[in-house]
Write a structure and sequence with these properties.
The structure is a single chain. The chain has 338 residues and is α/β, with parallel strands linked by helices. It contains twelve helices and eleven strands. It has one domain: Luciferase-like domain (TIM Barrel). The strands form two sheets. Strands 1, 2, 3, 4, 7, 8, 9, 10 and 11 form a nine-stranded parallel beta sheet that branches. It has a two-stranded antiparallel sheet with strand order 5-6. Helix 3 links the parallel strand 2 and strand 3. The longest helix has 25 residues.
């Protein structure tokens, strides 16, 4: 089986400044260490406004851009896409790309009342946005970001946004801005699966997803390719299939699981079943974590983002960077040669 070069992204827990899991200096220090590590390719931060309070993603990404030189920077994922004014968001994102020297990846997301906690309905109500409009608002935000980042005088006439001769300056360094689209469809909801994956096939330079098994990841990636072909679109060779994931490395699998559960339940203000965490977290020994990640590599993942779901962030960073990632990259390289 031919496998593309694997990339790893470090997800910083920016809700952790509220839950006590981390601090701003700790996050920025980890980003700087990842920047010079040689094994991390990108750094990511979570996003929401009021549903899951956290340090604002755009503010944090700008700070990361200022203290790093190599890593790509992005949101995993930008859940507030339908809540923010798309014109202002496009301006902010173009500025961030300019500030970072062209190192951004925008990941569009519509948000939603999934099982990972948060006050979804209250957030939409307080921002006067009807939840049923979020899919089209997200699509328009994607269209607007592509338009104003590539044209100096842009016109747009959509359902929610309309403007003429809009110029967004400074222009972003990247032309075009890379935009990934999220889709986390429930396999038992066939209509949801098709609608969300067709959107990725139509609008995405890449796909970011979470809450998968290796089997569902591979199946959904096949569907994206199928839907793109049906729509007459040739997916680019560098089309990204990104897995948003968690990791906790420990000598005791049971203790690693228990700490992951505590960390994530505090982080998301909810409870998670053992079955859910089994497919959302790589936990246990180094070898167990490598084996777990390799199952997704073989399923077609080209980028795996990892949040360190342990309270000793420095220790987790060290063992993941020095042991888990090099071994996974070596195993992936062997598969690629094979």
């Amino acid at each position: 089986m031919s496998i593309r070069k694997l990339a790893f992204g470090l997800t910083l827990p920016n809700r952790g400044v509220i839950t006590g899991a981390t601090t701003v200096p700790e996050m920025l220090k980890l980003a700087q260490r990842a920047d010079t590590s040689g094994v991390w390719d990108s750094v990511w931060v979570g996003d929401s406004i009021f549903a899951k309070p956290r340090l604002d993603s755009l503010t944090l990404m700008a700070a990361i851009a200022a203290v790093t030189n190599r890593l790509r920077i992005g949101p995993a994922c930008f859940a507030s896409t339908p809540l923010r004014d798309a014109r202002l968001l496009a301006y902010q994102w173009c500025s961030l790309d300019f500030l970072s020297g062209g190192r951004t990846t925008f990941v569009a997301c519509q948000g939603g009342p999934r099982q990972d906690g948060g006050r979804f309905y209250e957030e939409f109500a307080n921002l006067n946005v009807e939840p049923s409009s979020r899919m089209r608002r997200m699509e328009e935000a994607i269209e607007i970001l592509r338009l104003v980042s590539s044209q100096e005088s842009a016109n747009y006439d959509g359902e929610y946004y309309s403007f003429k001769n809009l110029a967004v300056l400074p222009r972003p360094v990247q032309q075009p801005i890379p935009i990934w689209v999220t889709a986390n469809p429930y396999p038992h909801q066939q209509k949801n699966v098709e609608t969300s994956l067709r959107r990725v096939a139509r609008l995405g330079d890449g796909w970011m997803t979470t809450e998968n098994t290796p089997e569902s990841f591979a199946g959904h990636l096949d569907l994206i390719r199928q839907y793109a072909e049906e729509q007459g679109r040739q997916l680019p060779e560098d089309f990204e299939a990104a897995l948003y994931y968690n990791i906790n490395v420990g000598k005791s699998r049971e203790r690693a699981f228990a700490e992951s559960k505590k960390f994530l339940e505090s982080y998301y203000m909810t409870s998670f079943s053992e079955e859910f965490l089994e497919r959302w977290v790589a936990f246990g020994s180094v070898d167990e974590c490598v084996d777990h990640l390799m199952r997704f590599v073989l399923a077609g993942a080209t980028t795996i983002t990892l949040r360190l779901v342990g309270y000793d962030q420095a220790q987790q960073y060290r063992v993941v960077t020095e042991q888990v990632l090099p071994r996974t990259l070596s195993a992936a390289a062997v598969q690629q040669v094979g």
